[in-house]
Amino acid sequence: MKSDKITDEELVKKSLEDLNYFAHLYDRYEKKLMSYIFRISNFSISESEDILQESFIKAWKNLNDFDGKLKFSSWIYRIVHNTTISMWNKSQSKGKNKEKKIDTEIFENLASKINIEEELDLKINSKIINKILSSMDEKYSIVLILKYLEGKDYKEISDILQKPSGTIATLINRAKKDFIQKYNDSKIILKK
Amino acid sequence: MKNAEKLISKIKKEDIRQNSFLLLKIKNFIFWLLFLFSILVGSISFSIILFFITEEEFSIYNNIISSGLELFLLLLPIFWLFLFLVIFIVSIFVIKKTKYGYRKSFLFFSFSFLFSLILGFVLSKTDIGKEIEHIFSEKIPVYKGFDRKKDMFWSRPKKGFLSGIVVSVKPLIINDEKNNHWEIDIKNKHFPKKIKIGHKVKISGKKLNDNTFIADKIMPWHKDKKFFKKFFERN
Fold this sequence. Notes:
Largest sheet of chain B: 5 strands, mixed, barrel
Distance between the termini of chain B: 81 Å
Number of helices of chain A: 9
Radius of gyration of chain A: 18 Å
Oligomer: heterodimer
Order of helices and strands of chain B: HHHHHHHHHEEEEEH
Shape of chain A: globular
């Protein structure tokens, strides 16, 4: 089955008639969504695969509810996000390590997009950004990840997190300020 | 085996089916219905607030009560105002539960609020507020405790406020809340023709002794709403 040129929305329609098309949607989003799960949690690969599978089963059950008023990518991100956060909170209550995984490349990407690259100290490494994001309020770290690492616009973030666009804009502004503040604080600590 | 294949295999093996399209639509529809219902209840609450406000003789209070806050606390229908605000907050929560409710802006909620006020204003002109308030007063014992401020206000003969049921017109005698008979000295004051035996009245004036009250102004307990009467008479 050639599905590369078919849009997500067309694949959804075809999936309702033939389950095998649903596998193409999974293939199309597997990498992106696995990466997103890693970024907002600290789950292992196998745990993340389970979360992704559970999310796609939820999507399958509610496929009739999907309409063209939002992008399929926003819809599936929303389901994955909610499932991950729910599982993450459960694992937190069981005392699992809170610090999220984030690599050097991701850190540099995030830092430069928030326009603090000129302030970047070469000594700073991914461990610090990891700590900064982990120390941030979850609502702030998630909007930063969606905006700067997943490349989503305000409307998409609004659809994923089910919050008004105005609230998303406010959250991003506050998150940026908080990130820069924490980054500057970490520099002072390093110099000492 | 690829993860996608594992997923398809699981769906087939466990025979996982899609939720009904109709059920999903009904769920969304119910939340919209609840939203409209909350707007209607809000409007009725507002019409009752208007009923309380418009039937008061504020000119009388202005001469007697110096503090606006005192007047506000004495006469404002707190229960209905509280209900109106609670219902409005509930309507926001309900709309947020609809499929795209999270996209609704401040403007949408402002319009809903405004619509609720306008509908409440229209309802107040049809005496619905008065009727509902009556039903609450008579049928719901708890409500009596909430909204007896007006009764309490007009049961202070020493302060110049008296209310009760008319038991005789000539001479004017009323029976107050505590079942005391009061003879009302009308002197040259205007006596509303509509007042008959069995009607509840409120009287401002001065207490002369334990069963005589000198009237300054005699008013029916509830004002007549003439808006629709006039409207129908004209047409």
